[in-house]
Design goal:
Layout lengths: L1 H9 L7 E4 L13 H8 L3 E6 L7 E2 L2 E5 L2 H14 L1 H4 L3 E6 H13 L5 E5 L2 H11 L8 E7 L4 E7 L2 E7 L2 H14 L8 E6 H10 L8 E4 L2 H13 L12
Parallel strand pairs: 4-6, 9-11
Antiparallel strand pairs: 1-8, 2-4, 2-5, 3-4, 7-8, 7-10, 8-9
């Protein structure tokens, strides 16, 4: 599934992609989607954790960090090395799917576990979110999408028989999509608005709603995150320890 996402990301700027405004309403709470369906939707999104040599997550105050960008995970280890060199030498950065984290988090809730996952956003993308929302603070990991047209529907991408609503982890990725949209739909260019929502809110909505629109959401990670994941797939055979190249 990750390979399909890589191919999808690679074609975002190609002339063959057709963009338009989808006639979708804003997501409203309803009955929950099946957990397995949610996991499948998130399986294509790489995130990064820090584990010890046994593969157990590094925990601080009952929280285990889930990093959106691998460089932030490596930076955490670099800071840890200044305070506890021995511990830092025993941990490593491990790429996992967001679906795995969601599944573990759900299981922990059902078992009333003390372990919680804390999503760590890219600092520069939080700054971009603050610029877009004109707020003093932004809680959570920002995702960037776009709306347009008289009804302010989501801007969607049609490829083959799939219609997708892309939510980007990086504002710069969205801009490439918007440039394409303005070229194809110049009459609607002035109606475009960027929407910023927390990843945590999207995950919560997936758990609480059966809105068919949710099946069309595609979370688009950064190219660096995909690169790290691809390195893992190419350099770690089945069953071996999973890690990114040293930084």
């Amino acid at each position: 599934m990750m390979k399909s996402l890589v191919r999808w990301c690679a074609t975002l700027g190609l002339a063959g992609a057709t963009l338009w405004v989808g006639e979708f309403s804003r997501m409203q709470p309803a009955s929950a989607l099946p957990s397995q369906q949610i996991v499948e939707r998130l399986q294509e999104v790489p995130v990064f954790t820090i584990t010890d040599q046994r593969g157990a997550p590094l925990v601080s105050g009952n929280f285990a960090g889930v990093f959106i960008h691998p460089d932030d995970a490596y930076a955490f280890i670099a800071r840890l090395r200044e305070d506890d060199q021995e511990l830092a030498s025993q941990v490593r950065v491990i790429p996992v799917s967001l679906g795995e984290i969601f599944q573990l988090d759900t299981a922990n809730e059902n078992q009333e576990s003390d372990l919680n996952f804390a999503y760590v956003p890219m600092r520069e993308q939080v700054q971009r979110a603050l610029q877009e929302t004109q707020q003093q603070e932004f809680q959570g990991v920002p995702l960037f999408a776009a709306r347009g047209g008289n009804e302010q529907g989501y801007i969607t991408l049609q490829q083959e028989d799939q219609q997708r609503i892309p939510f980007f982890f990086e504002r710069e990725q969205l801009e490439a999509l918007l440039a394409r949209f303005r070229e194809q739909q110049p009459a609607l260019a002035s109606t475009v608005e960027v929407e910023v929502v927390p990843l945590e809110a999207v995950l919560a909505t997936l758990s609480e709603s059966d809105n068919q629109q949710l099946a069309q959401i595609l979370l688009v990670p950064s190219e660096n995150a995909l690169e790290c994941w691809r390195w893992h797939q190419s350099n770690n055979p089945e069953g071996s320890a999973r890690t990114c190249p040293s930084r």
